[in-house]
From TrEMBL:
It comes from Streptomyces pratens. Residues 79-94 have a biased composition (Basic and acidic residues). PANTHER family: EXPORTED PROTEIN (PTHR30582:SF33), L,D-TRANSPEPTIDASE (PTHR30582). The keyword Protease does not apply. Residues 66-78 have a biased composition (Acidic residues). Pathway: Cell wall biogenesis; peptidoglycan biosynthesis. CDD domains: YkuD_like. This is L,D-transpeptidase family protein. Gene3D superfamilies: L,D-transpeptidase catalytic domain-like, PGBD-like superfamily/PGBD.
């Protein structure tokens, strides 16, 4: 019938309009039609794009097919549940400062090595003393600044590795260039009476009375052409302000024990440490200490020079 035909046409147009309106409404929230993929498989007819900042929806589990709540925040699109590049900066690992090995106030053998290595490359001119003092801090700061490291004055692992790469293992007398080394055990001949017990191996002098050590001092000896003599002697002459007639050099607090060889203060030893040597005498670098020793030692006291 004509009426029926008109109704059908009207209904058809109404459906078309409805579909168009639905499509427009879908476009307003970001719907897009997806074509088939390269294998001819159909895809979901629409993909919902949620506005930025919308909380993520439940994601289906690939194992059970059930929905599970994602606990990893916004997915970065690679399907592994990790946060993308836009995640909060607080979730990113922060750089860890290098571990500090030694800092001002520390002391010991390791600090001596640090100082000896800094001396090798002319960042430090004093010591080694074995104490992380002001000059050591300043030397470390200069070394760090020159190499673009954080200028802290503390020796951390990065600073230490850079220093190791530029220096060599210091020898024993670089570590104890200015003294401070431990004394060797006393020779058996030093265990009775009043004795200046002098060890060439440890480069030390012990002032001992009846087997008890009262004072220990670092000392320096003669070179190969003018060696200090080994053996058992005794102090035969003391001369507080002595000047050598052979070398025309001061020998304060001289205590003579073998010919022209004496225990005495040496300004050169105080200034250069074991970088130099004597003409055969036993040099002491601590003037205050040898001044006290000079007052205690008597003529006739024993002197033992041993290896």
């Amino acid at each position: 019938m004509r009426t029926t035909g008109m109704g059908t046409g009207t209904a058809t147009r109404a459906v078309a309009v409805g579909v168009a309106l639905a499509a427009l409404a879908g476009g307003a929230v970001g719907c897009t039609v997806q074509p088939v993929d390269a294998d001819g498989n159909g895809r979901s007819p629409v993909r919902i794009e949620l506005p930025s900042g919308t909380p993520s929806a439940y994601r289906p589990s690939s194992d059970t097919g059930s929905d599970s709540d994602s606990d990893s925040g916004v997915d970065d699109g690679d399907g592994d549940g990790r946060r993308g590049e836009g995640s909060d900066a607080g979730d990113r690992p922060e750089s860890v400062p290098a571990r500090v090995l030694w800092s001002p106030g520390d002391s010991g053998r390791d600090v001596r090595e640090l100082q000896a290595r800094l001396r090798q490359i002319a960042w430090l001119f004093d010591g080694p003393t074995g104490t992380y003092d002001g000059p050591t801090r300043e030397a470390v700061e200069g070394f760090q600044s020159k190499r673009g490291l954080p200028r802290t004055g503390r020796t951390d692992t990065v600073t230490w590795q850079r220093l190791l790469g530029m220096t060599r293992e210091p020898g024993r007398w670089e570590l104890y260039l200015m003294g401070g080394q431990p004394a060797a055990a006393p020779d058996a001949r030093c265990r009775t009476g009043r004795v200046l017990c002098i060890s060439k191996s440890s480069r030390t002098l012990r002032w001992m009375v009846d087997g008890r050590t009262l004072t220990t001092l670092p000392v320096r000896f003669g070179s190969d052409p003018t060696p200090t003599r080994d053996g058992v002697f005794e102090v035969y002459w003391k001369s507080r302000d002595h000047v050598s007639t052979l070398y025309d050099s001061p020998m304060p607090y001289a205590m003579f024990f073998s010919g022209g060889q004496a225990v005495h203060f040496s300004a050169d030893f105080a200034a250069r440490g074991y970088a130099g040597s004597s003409h055969g005498c036993v040099n002491v670098r601590d003037e205050a200490a040898i001044a006290r020793l000079y007052e205690q030692v008597r003529n006739g006291d024993k002197v033992v020079v041993h290896r």
